[in-house]
């Protein structure tokens, strides 16, 4: 479990490619290394990965086909930066919102609006079936960052970024066309899906009752 508060950025120092498999070696910030062990969970751009090797501040993580298909991690090259967050502990402050580290899809940076001390990023969702979970003022995970949703259209939404977010994460370097990992808020998804099921059940019951009423006695 994660909170969506990025603890630092790491640098990809090595990429090992195999068929439908990839290993990233990340140079981790010193502050994130204490008590890090094999098997620990670390979010990379919001995607939960498992530590497979530790050599000083160089930490390895493996990715399988499904991870590479759903996220932007397969596009990373040596020298690229990645947002990092270690798994939350029960005593940690939840400054963002609870996140699972399970990316549902990527969105494309469609527009960037910059003004003094502010930046607005519009994201285009290629999988519009997820738009029903993206609500104005709701929570969303953007490359592992807990953010509040701004305006929403049929296939796009925006987020507003303060200078601190731009300084501490990789969002300050994003350009048009870049892919961003998306994790929808699980509580929002549960509520929306439950309401849909209840409404569908009621509609089915009403349709059955209407059909029964039309039957000749």
Automatic annotation (TrEMBL):
SUPFAM superfamilies: Riboflavin synthase domain-like. One of its GO terms (cellular component) is cytosol. PROSITE patterns: LUMAZINE_BIND. One of its GO terms (molecular function) is riboflavin synthase activity. Keywords: Repeat, Riboflavin biosynthesis, Transferase. This is Riboflavin synthase. Catalyzes the dismutation of two molecules of 6,7-dimethyl-8-ribityllumazine, resulting in the formation of riboflavin and 5-amino-6-(D-ribitylamino)uracil. Coiled coil: none annotated. It comes from Rouxiella aceris. Its EC number is 2.5.1.9. It catalyses: 2 6,7-dimethyl-8-(1-D-ribityl)lumazine + H(+) = 5-amino-6-(D-ribitylamino)uracil + riboflavin.
